[in-house]
Amino acid sequence: QVQLVESGGGLVQAGDSLRLSCAASGRTFSSYTGGWFRQAPGKEREFVAAISWIGGGTLYADSVKGRFTISRDNAKNTLYLQMNSLKPEDTAVYYCAACPNTGPTTLSYEYHYWGQGTQVTVSS
Description:
Blueprint: E1 2-7, E2 10-13, E3 18-26, E4 33-39, E5 46-51, E6 58-60, E7 68-73, E8 78-83, E9 92-99, E10 113-114, E11 118-123
Parallel strand pairs: 2-11
Antiparallel strand pairs: 1-3, 3-8, 4-5, 4-9, 5-6, 7-8, 9-10, 9-11
């Protein structure tokens, strides 16, 4: 089992930055690919970014490429999402997730563990 707790969400203005953190406990988080997903009101949950547990390979959704950066600190069992140049359309609940695959994946069903989510609201 892996327990995940997100933090760092909040209300910001367009163009601002936020850094989300996801603290993991339980089984060794360093053995899991880490991912971020988001869900806006009335919309399906969508993939944002993922980072492999070995090698640091990353994947990003086209909508965040160049603005968001995913990283991890395995010594601290923590996953991060640095979000720059935020837009109102980035408003959503952001979830971190853990997947046993060796490489990053965009597929939500491959992630076995999920956090409770943190709200990010970007005003125009």
